[in-house]
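Worked example 3 (structure in, sequence out).
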Protein backbone atom coordinates (compact mmCIF):
# COMPACT_ATOMS: atom_id res chain seq x y z
CA UNK A 1 0.00 0.00 0.00
CA UNK A 2 1.41 3.41 -0.94
CA UNK A 3 2.13 5.76 1.85
CA UNK A 4 -0.10 8.80 2.09
CA UNK A 5 1.59 12.13 1.47
CA UNK A 6 3.78 13.59 4.18
CA UNK A 7 2.82 17.11 5.22
CA UNK A 8 5.47 19.72 4.50
CA UNK A 9 5.10 21.11 8.02
CA UNK A 10 3.94 19.64 11.30
CA UNK A 11 0.16 19.65 11.40
CA UNK A 12 -1.40 21.52 14.30
CA UNK A 13 -2.98 18.41 15.71
CA UNK A 14 -2.79 16.65 19.05
CA UNK A 15 -0.62 13.53 19.22
CA UNK A 16 -1.75 10.43 21.07
CA UNK A 17 -1.35 6.68 20.70
CA UNK A 18 -1.03 5.37 17.12
CA UNK A 19 -4.39 4.38 15.68
CA UNK A 20 -6.35 7.13 17.45
CA UNK A 21 -8.67 9.49 15.58
CA UNK A 22 -8.04 13.21 15.79
CA UNK A 23 -9.58 16.49 14.68
CA UNK A 24 -7.50 18.73 12.44
CA UNK A 25 -7.61 22.50 12.47
CA UNK A 26 -8.71 24.83 9.71
CA UNK A 27 -5.08 25.37 8.66
CA UNK A 28 -4.70 21.68 7.77
CA UNK A 29 -7.78 21.29 5.60
CA UNK A 30 -6.05 21.62 2.25
CA UNK A 31 -3.37 19.11 3.24
CA UNK A 32 -6.04 16.76 4.52
CA UNK A 33 -7.91 16.86 1.24
CA UNK A 34 -4.74 15.94 -0.63
CA UNK A 35 -4.14 13.09 1.80
CA UNK A 36 -7.26 11.15 0.78
CA UNK A 37 -6.43 7.62 -0.27
CA UNK A 38 -8.57 4.79 -1.57
CA UNK A 39 -6.47 2.19 0.22
CA UNK A 40 -7.90 0.54 3.29
CA UNK A 41 -6.18 1.67 6.48
CA UNK A 42 -5.64 -0.63 9.41
CA UNK A 43 -8.09 -1.23 12.25
CA UNK A 44 -8.26 1.50 14.84
CA UNK A 45 -7.73 1.29 18.56
CA UNK A 46 -9.81 4.18 19.86
CA UNK A 47 -13.62 4.27 19.59
CA UNK A 48 -15.31 6.64 17.19
CA UNK A 49 -18.27 8.78 18.10
CA UNK A 50 -21.38 9.54 16.12
CA UNK A 51 -23.49 12.70 16.24
CA UNK A 52 -25.33 11.52 19.32
CA UNK A 53 -22.10 10.60 21.10
CA UNK A 54 -22.50 6.82 20.96
CA UNK A 55 -19.54 4.57 20.14
CA UNK A 56 -19.06 3.09 16.68
CA UNK A 57 -17.21 -0.17 15.98
CA UNK A 58 -13.50 -0.18 16.83
CA UNK A 59 -12.42 -3.15 14.76
CA UNK A 60 -12.45 -3.91 11.07
CA UNK A 61 -11.99 -1.42 8.30
CA UNK A 62 -13.79 1.86 7.72
CA UNK A 63 -15.84 0.10 5.06
CA UNK A 64 -17.58 -1.80 7.85
CA UNK A 65 -18.61 1.39 9.61
CA UNK A 66 -22.23 2.41 9.06
CA UNK A 67 -21.42 6.09 8.52
CA UNK A 68 -19.32 6.94 5.42
CA UNK A 69 -16.71 9.60 6.04
CA UNK A 70 -16.65 12.82 4.06
CA UNK A 71 -14.37 15.80 4.07
CA UNK A 72 -15.47 19.30 4.99
CA UNK A 73 -17.17 21.78 2.67
CA UNK A 74 -19.35 18.95 1.32
CA UNK A 75 -16.56 17.57 -0.92
CA UNK A 76 -17.56 13.93 -1.08
CA UNK A 77 -15.24 10.97 -1.56
CA UNK A 78 -15.90 7.27 -1.93
CA UNK A 79 -17.64 5.59 0.99
CA UNK A 80 -15.22 4.19 3.49
CA UNK A 81 -12.33 6.51 2.65
CA UNK A 82 -10.49 7.91 5.64
CA UNK A 83 -8.05 10.76 5.41
CA UNK A 84 -4.71 9.47 6.65
CA UNK A 85 -1.93 11.96 7.26
CA UNK A 86 1.61 11.65 8.53
CA UNK A 87 3.33 14.14 10.77
CA UNK A 88 7.00 14.82 10.16
CA UNK A 89 9.52 16.48 12.46
CA UNK A 90 13.23 16.27 13.10
CA UNK A 91 13.01 13.01 15.00
CA UNK A 92 10.27 10.85 13.56
CA UNK A 93 7.32 10.37 11.25
CA UNK A 94 4.08 9.37 12.81
CA UNK A 95 0.82 8.47 11.12
CA UNK A 96 -2.55 9.39 12.45
CA UNK A 97 -5.99 8.98 11.01
CA UNK A 98 -8.19 11.99 10.61
CA UNK A 99 -11.94 12.23 10.67
CA UNK A 100 -12.60 15.29 8.55
CA UNK A 101 -16.33 15.71 8.63
CA UNK A 102 -17.44 17.88 11.56
CA UNK A 103 -20.91 16.39 11.31
CA UNK A 104 -19.53 12.99 12.28
CA UNK A 105 -18.23 14.39 15.57
CA UNK A 106 -20.20 15.42 18.60
CA UNK A 107 -23.01 17.85 17.85
CA UNK A 108 -21.65 19.90 20.74
CA UNK A 109 -18.66 19.26 22.97
CA UNK A 110 -20.15 20.65 26.17
CA UNK A 111 -20.89 18.03 28.80
CA UNK A 112 -24.44 17.61 30.05
CA UNK A 113 -23.51 19.51 33.20
CA UNK A 114 -22.10 22.40 31.16
CA UNK A 115 -25.23 22.46 29.01
CA UNK A 116 -27.37 22.66 32.13
CA UNK A 117 -25.30 25.62 33.35
CA UNK A 118 -26.07 27.49 30.14
CA UNK A 119 -29.75 26.54 30.34
CA UNK A 120 -29.96 27.91 33.89
CA UNK A 121 -28.30 31.17 32.81
CA UNK A 122 -30.64 31.75 29.86
CA UNK A 123 -33.63 30.63 31.92
CA UNK A 124 -32.82 33.26 34.55
CA UNK A 125 -32.68 35.80 31.74
CA UNK A 126 -35.97 34.45 30.39
CA UNK A 127 -37.67 35.22 33.71
CA UNK A 128 -37.95 38.87 32.81
CA UNK A 129 -40.49 38.57 30.02
CA UNK A 130 -43.29 37.00 32.11
CA UNK A 131 -42.08 38.60 35.36
CA UNK A 132 -42.26 42.14 34.01
CA UNK A 133 -45.79 41.50 32.80
CA UNK A 134 -47.22 39.70 35.83
CA UNK A 135 -45.53 41.62 38.63
CA UNK A 136 -47.65 44.52 37.39
CA UNK A 137 -51.10 42.92 37.78
CA UNK A 138 -51.67 43.42 41.55
CA UNK A 139 -50.75 47.09 41.17
CA UNK A 140 -53.37 47.91 38.52
CA UNK A 141 -55.80 49.31 41.09
CA UNK A 142 -53.18 51.53 42.74
CA UNK A 143 -51.84 52.72 39.39
CA UNK A 144 -55.38 53.57 38.28
CA UNK A 145 -55.88 55.72 41.38
CA UNK A 146 -52.43 57.31 41.14
CA UNK A 147 -52.76 58.49 37.52
CA UNK A 148 -56.53 59.06 37.87
CA UNK A 149 -57.46 56.79 34.96
CA UNK A 150 -60.01 53.99 34.74
CA UNK A 151 -58.67 50.48 35.29
CA UNK A 152 -59.84 49.46 31.81
CA UNK A 153 -57.48 52.10 30.38
CA UNK A 154 -54.64 51.00 32.65
CA UNK A 155 -55.19 47.49 31.31
CA UNK A 156 -54.23 48.88 27.90
CA UNK A 157 -50.65 49.19 29.20
CA UNK A 158 -50.76 45.40 29.52
CA UNK A 159 -52.03 45.22 25.94
CA UNK A 160 -49.23 47.48 24.68
CA UNK A 161 -46.69 45.41 26.59
CA UNK A 162 -47.94 42.21 24.96
CA UNK A 163 -48.08 43.76 21.49
CA UNK A 164 -44.48 44.96 21.66
CA UNK A 165 -43.52 41.67 23.30
CA UNK A 166 -44.73 39.98 20.14
CA UNK A 167 -43.11 42.33 17.63
CA UNK A 168 -39.72 42.99 19.28
CA UNK A 169 -38.31 39.44 18.97
CA UNK A 170 -38.75 39.73 15.21
CA UNK A 171 -35.89 42.25 15.38
CA UNK A 172 -33.84 40.60 18.13
CA UNK A 173 -34.24 37.05 16.77
CA UNK A 174 -32.53 37.67 13.39
CA UNK A 175 -29.85 39.73 15.17
CA UNK A 176 -29.26 36.75 17.43
CA UNK A 177 -29.13 34.32 14.48
CA UNK A 178 -26.59 36.48 12.60
CA UNK A 179 -24.44 38.43 15.08
CA UNK A 180 -24.63 36.11 18.08
CA UNK A 181 -26.64 35.18 21.18
CA UNK A 182 -24.38 36.89 23.67
CA UNK A 183 -24.28 40.32 22.03
CA UNK A 184 -28.08 40.24 21.64
CA UNK A 185 -28.56 39.43 25.32
CA UNK A 186 -26.33 42.36 26.30
CA UNK A 187 -28.15 44.80 23.99
CA UNK A 188 -31.62 43.72 25.04
CA UNK A 189 -30.81 43.99 28.76
CA UNK A 190 -29.38 47.48 28.25
CA UNK A 191 -32.73 48.57 26.77
CA UNK A 192 -34.64 46.79 29.54
CA UNK A 193 -32.70 48.43 32.39
CA UNK A 194 -33.09 51.93 30.94
CA UNK A 195 -36.84 51.43 30.51
CA UNK A 196 -37.30 50.32 34.12
CA UNK A 197 -35.38 53.32 35.44
CA UNK A 198 -37.67 55.59 33.39
CA UNK A 199 -40.78 53.76 34.66
CA UNK A 200 -39.66 54.28 38.24
CA UNK A 201 -39.96 58.04 37.64
CA UNK A 202 -43.19 57.94 35.59
CA UNK A 203 -46.00 60.08 36.99
CA UNK A 204 -48.67 60.07 34.25
CA UNK A 205 -50.48 57.65 31.96
CA UNK A 206 -48.67 58.69 28.76
CA UNK A 207 -45.16 58.11 30.12
CA UNK A 208 -46.29 54.87 31.73
CA UNK A 209 -47.63 53.62 28.40
CA UNK A 210 -44.51 54.65 26.45
CA UNK A 211 -41.93 53.17 28.78
CA UNK A 212 -43.91 49.97 29.28
CA UNK A 213 -43.59 49.49 25.52
CA UNK A 214 -39.81 50.01 25.70
CA UNK A 215 -39.64 47.68 28.71
CA UNK A 216 -41.38 45.00 26.64
CA UNK A 217 -38.96 45.56 23.75
CA UNK A 218 -36.08 44.86 26.12
CA UNK A 219 -37.49 41.84 27.95
CA UNK A 220 -39.29 40.02 25.14
CA UNK A 221 -36.21 38.78 23.29
CA UNK A 222 -34.86 36.87 26.28
CA UNK A 223 -37.14 33.94 25.44
CA UNK A 224 -36.27 33.64 21.75
CA UNK A 225 -32.54 34.15 22.31
CA UNK A 226 -32.58 31.65 25.17
CA UNK A 227 -34.29 29.12 22.91
CA UNK A 228 -31.60 29.86 20.33
CA UNK A 229 -28.86 28.97 22.81
CA UNK A 230 -30.58 25.67 23.62
CA UNK A 231 -30.99 24.92 19.91
CA UNK A 232 -27.27 25.56 19.39
CA UNK A 233 -26.04 23.08 22.00
CA UNK A 234 -28.64 20.27 21.96
CA UNK A 235 -29.91 17.63 19.57
CA UNK A 236 -33.61 16.91 19.04
CA UNK A 237 -33.23 13.76 21.14
CA UNK A 238 -32.33 15.68 24.30
CA UNK A 239 -33.91 19.04 23.52
CA UNK A 240 -37.31 18.31 25.06
CA UNK A 241 -36.00 18.06 28.61
CA UNK A 242 -33.89 21.20 28.27
CA UNK A 243 -36.77 23.16 26.73
CA UNK A 244 -39.10 21.96 29.48
CA UNK A 245 -36.74 23.09 32.21
CA UNK A 246 -36.12 26.36 30.36
CA UNK A 247 -39.85 27.00 30.33
CA UNK A 248 -40.27 25.88 33.94
CA UNK A 249 -37.53 28.12 35.36
CA UNK A 250 -38.67 30.97 33.14
CA UNK A 251 -42.23 30.55 34.32
CA UNK A 252 -41.19 31.18 37.92
CA UNK A 253 -41.90 34.76 36.91
CA UNK A 254 -45.46 33.66 36.30
CA UNK A 255 -45.62 32.24 39.82
CA UNK A 256 -43.71 34.68 42.01
CA UNK A 257 -44.23 37.85 39.96
CA UNK A 258 -47.73 38.74 41.19
CA UNK A 259 -46.81 37.81 44.77
CA UNK A 260 -43.75 40.05 44.71
CA UNK A 261 -45.76 42.77 43.00
CA UNK A 262 -48.47 42.56 45.65
CA UNK A 263 -45.96 42.75 48.52
CA UNK A 264 -44.02 45.64 47.01
CA UNK A 265 -47.17 47.60 46.15
CA UNK A 266 -48.66 47.03 49.61
CA UNK A 267 -45.61 48.27 51.53
CA UNK A 268 -43.57 50.48 49.17
CA UNK A 269 -45.89 51.62 46.35
CA UNK A 270 -45.97 50.52 42.74
CA UNK A 271 -42.93 52.59 41.64
CA UNK A 272 -40.72 50.33 43.77
CA UNK A 273 -41.64 47.44 41.46
CA UNK A 274 -39.49 48.94 38.72
CA UNK A 275 -36.49 49.51 41.01
CA UNK A 276 -36.73 45.84 41.97
CA UNK A 277 -36.64 44.89 38.28
CA UNK A 278 -33.60 47.14 37.73
CA UNK A 279 -31.65 45.34 40.46
CA UNK A 280 -32.68 41.86 39.33
CA UNK A 281 -32.05 42.68 35.66
CA UNK A 282 -28.57 43.98 36.40
CA UNK A 283 -27.78 40.73 38.24
CA UNK A 284 -28.83 38.68 35.21
CA UNK A 285 -26.80 40.86 32.84
CA UNK A 286 -23.76 40.44 35.09
CA UNK A 287 -24.10 36.63 35.03
CA UNK A 288 -24.36 36.69 31.22
CA UNK A 289 -21.30 38.91 30.79
CA UNK A 290 -19.19 36.81 33.18
CA UNK A 291 -20.22 33.25 32.33
CA UNK A 292 -22.25 32.89 29.09
CA UNK A 293 -20.11 32.04 26.02
CA UNK A 294 -21.25 32.60 22.47
CA UNK A 295 -23.01 29.48 21.17
CA UNK A 296 -24.17 30.53 17.69
CA UNK A 297 -22.79 27.77 15.49
CA UNK A 298 -21.33 29.87 12.69
CA UNK A 299 -19.28 31.68 15.36
CA UNK A 300 -18.58 29.01 17.99
CA UNK A 301 -19.04 25.84 15.92
CA UNK A 302 -19.72 22.91 18.22
CA UNK A 303 -17.86 24.59 21.07
CA UNK A 304 -14.34 23.89 19.81
CA UNK A 305 -13.65 27.28 18.19
CA UNK A 306 -11.82 29.86 20.27
CA UNK A 307 -13.95 32.90 21.10
CA UNK A 308 -12.79 36.51 20.95
CA UNK A 309 -14.07 39.97 21.78
CA UNK A 310 -17.73 40.37 22.70
CA UNK A 311 -18.32 36.64 22.14
CA UNK A 312 -15.89 35.64 24.89
CA UNK A 313 -17.13 35.52 28.53
CA UNK A 314 -15.08 37.12 31.30
CA UNK A 315 -14.55 33.73 32.93
CA UNK A 316 -13.43 31.24 30.28
CA UNK A 317 -12.15 28.25 32.26
CA UNK A 318 -15.37 26.27 31.74
CA UNK A 319 -15.29 26.74 27.93
CA UNK A 320 -11.66 27.33 26.90
CA UNK A 321 -10.74 23.71 27.69
CA UNK A 322 -12.82 22.73 24.63
CA UNK A 323 -11.15 25.17 22.25
CA UNK A 324 -9.25 23.18 19.63
CA UNK A 325 -9.55 25.39 16.56
CA UNK A 326 -8.71 29.02 15.78
CA UNK A 327 -11.54 31.42 15.17
CA UNK A 328 -13.26 30.90 11.80
CA UNK A 329 -16.64 31.52 10.25
CA UNK A 330 -18.86 28.42 10.46
CA UNK A 331 -22.28 27.66 9.12
CA UNK A 332 -25.15 26.12 11.10
CA UNK A 333 -23.90 22.56 10.55
CA UNK A 334 -20.46 23.31 11.90
CA UNK A 335 -18.77 23.41 8.47
CA UNK A 336 -16.62 26.25 7.22
CA UNK A 337 -18.84 29.00 5.87
CA UNK A 338 -17.81 31.17 2.95
CA UNK A 339 -19.31 34.32 4.44
CA UNK A 340 -20.69 35.67 7.67
CA UNK A 341 -24.49 36.09 7.71
CA UNK A 342 -25.40 39.76 7.54
CA UNK A 343 -27.94 41.52 9.73
CA UNK A 344 -30.08 43.33 7.18
CA UNK A 345 -33.69 44.29 6.59
CA UNK A 346 -33.97 41.05 4.65
CA UNK A 347 -32.81 39.02 7.64
CA UNK A 348 -35.45 40.74 9.79
CA UNK A 349 -38.25 40.01 7.34
CA UNK A 350 -37.07 36.51 6.38
CA UNK A 351 -38.55 34.77 9.46
CA UNK A 352 -41.99 36.08 8.49
CA UNK A 353 -41.80 33.67 5.54
CA UNK A 354 -42.11 30.86 8.09
CA UNK A 355 -45.79 31.81 8.42
CA UNK A 356 -46.42 30.71 4.83
CA UNK A 357 -45.27 27.16 5.61
CA UNK A 358 -48.32 24.97 6.22
CA UNK A 359 -46.87 23.04 9.18
CA UNK A 360 -45.64 26.21 10.87
CA UNK A 361 -48.94 28.03 10.33
CA UNK A 362 -50.99 25.17 11.80
CA UNK A 363 -48.69 24.87 14.81
CA UNK A 364 -48.54 28.59 15.53
CA UNK A 365 -52.23 29.40 15.08
CA UNK A 366 -53.47 26.73 17.48
CA UNK A 367 -50.81 27.58 20.06
CA UNK A 368 -51.58 31.29 19.74
CA UNK A 369 -55.27 30.81 20.53
CA UNK A 370 -54.43 28.71 23.60
CA UNK A 371 -51.99 31.42 24.71
CA UNK A 372 -54.58 34.15 24.15
CA UNK A 373 -57.23 32.45 26.27
CA UNK A 374 -54.74 31.75 29.05
CA UNK A 375 -53.61 35.41 28.93
CA UNK A 376 -57.22 36.60 29.20
CA UNK A 377 -57.73 34.37 32.24
CA UNK A 378 -54.61 35.83 33.87
CA UNK A 379 -55.14 39.50 32.99
CA UNK A 380 -58.78 39.51 34.14
CA UNK A 381 -58.01 37.89 37.51
CA UNK A 382 -57.61 41.14 39.46
CA UNK A 383 -60.84 42.66 38.14
CA UNK A 384 -62.82 39.42 38.68
CA UNK A 385 -61.50 38.40 42.11
CA UNK A 386 -60.73 41.63 44.01
CA UNK A 387 -64.28 43.09 44.14
CA UNK A 388 -65.99 39.69 44.40
CA UNK A 389 -63.94 38.46 47.37
CA UNK A 390 -62.87 41.85 48.85
CA UNK A 391 -59.12 41.23 48.55
CA UNK A 392 -56.18 43.49 49.46
CA UNK A 393 -53.25 44.08 47.09
CA UNK A 394 -51.22 41.43 48.90
CA UNK A 395 -54.07 38.92 48.69
CA UNK A 396 -54.49 39.67 44.99
CA UNK A 397 -50.84 38.79 44.52
CA UNK A 398 -51.28 35.51 46.38
CA UNK A 399 -54.19 34.32 44.23
CA UNK A 400 -51.82 34.22 41.24
CA UNK A 401 -49.80 31.46 42.92
CA UNK A 402 -51.83 28.52 41.51
CA UNK A 403 -51.43 29.91 38.00
CA UNK A 404 -47.68 30.36 38.40
CA UNK A 405 -47.12 27.02 40.11
CA UNK A 406 -48.97 25.32 37.26
CA UNK A 407 -46.76 27.03 34.68
CA UNK A 408 -43.57 25.86 36.40
CA UNK A 409 -44.73 22.29 36.99
CA UNK A 410 -46.35 22.07 33.55
CA UNK A 411 -43.14 23.06 31.76
CA UNK A 412 -40.97 20.65 33.74
CA UNK A 413 -43.41 17.76 33.45
CA UNK A 414 -43.91 18.29 29.72
CA UNK A 415 -40.16 18.37 29.12
CA UNK A 416 -39.92 14.85 30.53
CA UNK A 417 -42.85 13.73 28.38
CA UNK A 418 -41.27 15.20 25.24
CA UNK A 419 -38.05 13.25 25.75
CA UNK A 420 -40.00 10.08 26.48
CA UNK A 421 -42.20 10.52 23.39
CA UNK A 422 -39.16 11.17 21.21
CA UNK A 423 -37.48 7.96 22.40
CA UNK A 424 -40.67 6.01 21.74
CA UNK A 425 -41.06 7.38 18.20
CA UNK A 426 -37.38 6.75 17.50
CA UNK A 427 -37.76 3.15 18.70
CA UNK A 428 -40.75 2.67 16.39
CA UNK A 429 -38.78 4.18 13.49
CA UNK A 430 -35.84 1.84 14.12
CA UNK A 431 -38.15 -1.19 14.28
CA UNK A 432 -39.91 -0.29 11.02
CA UNK A 433 -36.59 0.27 9.19
CA UNK A 434 -34.69 -2.66 10.69
CA UNK A 435 -32.13 -0.48 12.49
CA UNK A 436 -30.69 -1.86 15.71
CA UNK A 437 -30.70 0.17 18.91
CA UNK A 438 -26.88 0.25 18.96
CA UNK A 439 -26.58 1.73 15.48
CA UNK A 440 -26.49 5.54 15.48
CA UNK A 441 -28.91 7.17 13.06
CA UNK A 442 -27.39 8.96 10.09
CA UNK A 443 -28.27 12.54 9.22
CA UNK A 444 -30.70 11.43 6.50
CA UNK A 445 -32.42 9.03 8.89
CA UNK A 446 -32.69 11.73 11.55
CA UNK A 447 -34.38 14.01 9.02
CA UNK A 448 -36.94 11.27 8.31
CA UNK A 449 -38.00 10.89 11.95
CA UNK A 450 -41.67 11.94 12.37
CA UNK A 451 -40.92 14.90 14.64
CA UNK A 452 -44.47 16.26 14.53
CA UNK A 453 -45.84 13.04 15.96
CA UNK A 454 -43.07 12.87 18.52
CA UNK A 455 -43.91 16.36 19.80
CA UNK A 456 -47.72 16.15 19.51
CA UNK A 457 -48.15 12.59 20.76
CA UNK A 458 -49.38 13.66 24.24
CA UNK A 459 -50.95 16.99 23.25
CA UNK A 460 -54.46 15.58 22.96
CA UNK A 461 -54.71 14.93 26.70
CA UNK A 462 -53.69 18.48 27.54
CA UNK A 463 -56.15 19.96 25.03
CA UNK A 464 -59.04 18.06 26.63
CA UNK A 465 -57.99 19.28 30.09
CA UNK A 466 -57.71 22.84 28.83
CA UNK A 467 -61.15 22.89 27.19
CA UNK A 468 -62.93 21.43 30.23
CA UNK A 469 -61.21 23.80 32.66
CA UNK A 470 -61.93 26.92 30.57
CA UNK A 471 -65.59 25.97 30.16
CA UNK A 472 -65.98 25.46 33.91
CA UNK A 473 -64.02 28.56 34.91
CA UNK A 474 -66.72 31.04 33.91
CA UNK A 475 -69.39 29.06 35.79
CA UNK A 476 -67.25 29.03 38.96
CA UNK A 477 -67.03 32.83 38.94
CA UNK A 478 -70.72 33.45 38.26
CA UNK A 479 -72.39 31.02 40.67
CA UNK A 480 -73.73 32.84 43.78
CA UNK A 481 -73.05 29.76 45.89
CA UNK A 482 -69.29 30.28 45.40
CA UNK A 483 -69.28 34.03 46.10
CA UNK A 484 -67.86 33.60 49.63
CA UNK A 485 -64.14 33.31 50.39
CA UNK A 486 -64.17 29.47 50.65
CA UNK A 487 -65.83 29.35 47.24
CA UNK A 488 -62.74 31.01 45.75
CA UNK A 489 -60.99 27.62 45.88
CA UNK A 490 -62.80 26.21 42.82
CA UNK A 491 -61.89 28.96 40.30
CA UNK A 492 -58.31 28.88 41.60
CA UNK A 493 -58.12 25.11 41.06
CA UNK A 494 -59.47 25.61 37.55
CA UNK A 495 -56.87 28.33 36.98
CA UNK A 496 -54.21 25.79 37.93
CA UNK A 497 -55.56 23.28 35.39
CA UNK A 498 -55.84 25.95 32.68
CA UNK A 499 -52.27 27.14 33.25
CA UNK A 500 -50.84 23.61 33.53
CA UNK A 501 -52.42 22.37 30.30
CA UNK A 502 -51.74 25.62 28.43
CA UNK A 503 -48.06 25.58 29.43
CA UNK A 504 -47.79 21.95 28.34
CA UNK A 505 -49.13 22.92 24.91
CA UNK A 506 -46.74 25.93 24.74
CA UNK A 507 -43.73 23.74 25.58
CA UNK A 508 -44.60 21.15 22.94
CA UNK A 509 -45.30 23.95 20.47
CA UNK A 510 -41.94 25.64 21.15
CA UNK A 511 -39.95 22.40 20.89
CA UNK A 512 -41.59 21.60 17.55
CA UNK A 513 -40.81 25.06 16.18
CA UNK A 514 -37.12 24.68 17.07
CA UNK A 515 -37.14 21.22 15.44
CA UNK A 516 -38.68 22.61 12.25
CA UNK A 517 -36.02 25.33 11.95
CA UNK A 518 -32.95 24.14 13.93
CA UNK A 519 -30.60 26.49 12.09
CA UNK A 520 -32.68 29.57 12.92
CA UNK A 521 -34.13 28.63 16.29
CA UNK A 522 -34.15 32.18 17.68
CA UNK A 523 -35.96 33.51 14.61
CA UNK A 524 -38.43 30.62 14.70
CA UNK A 525 -39.16 31.30 18.37
CA UNK A 526 -39.48 35.01 17.58
CA UNK A 527 -42.15 34.29 14.97
CA UNK A 528 -43.87 32.07 17.52
CA UNK A 529 -43.88 34.97 19.99
CA UNK A 530 -45.07 37.39 17.32
CA UNK A 531 -48.18 35.37 16.54
CA UNK A 532 -48.91 34.50 20.17
CA UNK A 533 -48.40 37.93 21.64
CA UNK A 534 -50.13 39.82 18.83
CA UNK A 535 -53.25 37.70 19.18
CA UNK A 536 -52.88 37.74 22.97
CA UNK A 537 -52.70 41.53 23.02
CA UNK A 538 -55.99 41.76 21.15
CA UNK A 539 -57.57 39.32 23.58
CA UNK A 540 -56.32 41.10 26.69
CA UNK A 541 -57.48 44.45 25.33
CA UNK A 542 -61.00 43.17 24.79
CA UNK A 543 -61.62 40.57 27.49
CA UNK A 544 -62.87 42.97 30.16
CA UNK A 545 -65.25 44.65 27.73
CA UNK A 546 -66.56 41.24 26.61
CA UNK A 547 -67.09 40.11 30.21
CA UNK A 548 -68.91 43.36 31.03
CA UNK A 549 -71.15 42.91 28.00
CA UNK A 550 -72.12 39.20 28.04
CA UNK A 551 -70.97 37.98 31.45
CA UNK A 552 -68.07 35.84 32.63
CA UNK A 553 -69.92 32.51 32.24
CA UNK A 554 -70.78 32.92 28.55
CA UNK A 555 -67.40 34.51 27.77
CA UNK A 556 -65.29 31.55 28.85
CA UNK A 557 -67.76 29.04 27.45
CA UNK A 558 -67.30 30.66 24.03
CA UNK A 559 -63.52 30.46 24.47
CA UNK A 560 -63.74 26.71 25.17
CA UNK A 561 -65.85 26.16 22.05
CA UNK A 562 -63.33 28.17 20.00
CA UNK A 563 -60.51 25.79 20.99
CA UNK A 564 -62.64 22.79 20.03
CA UNK A 565 -63.24 24.40 16.63
CA UNK A 566 -59.47 24.81 16.12
CA UNK A 567 -58.43 21.24 17.00
CA UNK A 568 -58.49 20.19 13.29
CA UNK A 569 -55.27 22.23 12.97
CA UNK A 570 -53.59 19.76 15.34
CA UNK A 571 -54.93 16.84 13.34
CA UNK A 572 -53.59 18.33 10.10
CA UNK A 573 -50.17 18.77 11.68
CA UNK A 574 -50.28 15.19 12.98
CA UNK A 575 -51.40 13.77 9.62
CA UNK A 576 -49.44 15.82 7.11
CA UNK A 577 -46.71 17.55 9.14
CA UNK A 578 -43.90 15.26 8.05
CA UNK A 579 -44.91 15.47 4.39
CA UNK A 580 -44.90 19.27 4.56
CA UNK A 581 -41.53 19.30 6.34
CA UNK A 582 -39.98 16.95 3.75
CA UNK A 583 -41.28 19.12 0.90
CA UNK A 584 -39.78 22.23 2.51
CA UNK A 585 -36.40 20.54 3.09
CA UNK A 586 -36.28 19.36 -0.53
CA UNK A 587 -37.21 22.84 -1.76
CA UNK A 588 -34.53 24.48 0.38
CA UNK A 589 -31.94 21.92 -0.74
CA UNK A 590 -32.72 22.67 -4.40
CA UNK A 591 -32.46 26.39 -3.75
CA UNK A 592 -29.09 26.01 -2.03
CA UNK A 593 -27.86 23.88 -4.91
CA UNK A 594 -28.93 26.47 -7.45
CA UNK A 595 -27.25 29.24 -5.45
CA UNK A 596 -24.06 27.19 -5.24
CA UNK A 597 -24.04 26.72 -9.03
CA UNK A 598 -24.59 30.44 -9.59
CA UNK A 599 -21.79 31.26 -7.13
CA UNK A 600 -19.37 28.96 -8.98
CA UNK A 601 -20.23 30.57 -12.29
Amino acid sequence: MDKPPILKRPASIDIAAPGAFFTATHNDREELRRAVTADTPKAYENPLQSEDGSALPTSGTPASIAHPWRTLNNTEYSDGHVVEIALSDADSEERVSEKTDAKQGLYHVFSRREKWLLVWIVSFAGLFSPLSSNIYFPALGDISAHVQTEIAMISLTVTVYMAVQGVAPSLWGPLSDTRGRRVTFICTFAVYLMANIALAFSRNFASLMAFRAIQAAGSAATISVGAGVIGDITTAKERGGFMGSFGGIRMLGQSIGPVIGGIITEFFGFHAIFWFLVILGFMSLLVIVIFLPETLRHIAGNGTIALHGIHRPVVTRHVSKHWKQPHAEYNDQGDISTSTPKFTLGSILAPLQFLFEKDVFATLLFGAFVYTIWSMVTSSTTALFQPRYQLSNLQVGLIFLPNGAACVSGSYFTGKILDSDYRLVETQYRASHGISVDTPLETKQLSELPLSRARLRSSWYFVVLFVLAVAGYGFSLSTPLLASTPGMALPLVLQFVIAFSATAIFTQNSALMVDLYPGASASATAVNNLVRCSLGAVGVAGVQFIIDRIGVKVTFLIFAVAIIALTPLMWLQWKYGETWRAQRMARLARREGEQAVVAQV
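Notes: The two ends are 39 Å apart (CA to CA). The chain has 25 helices and five strands.
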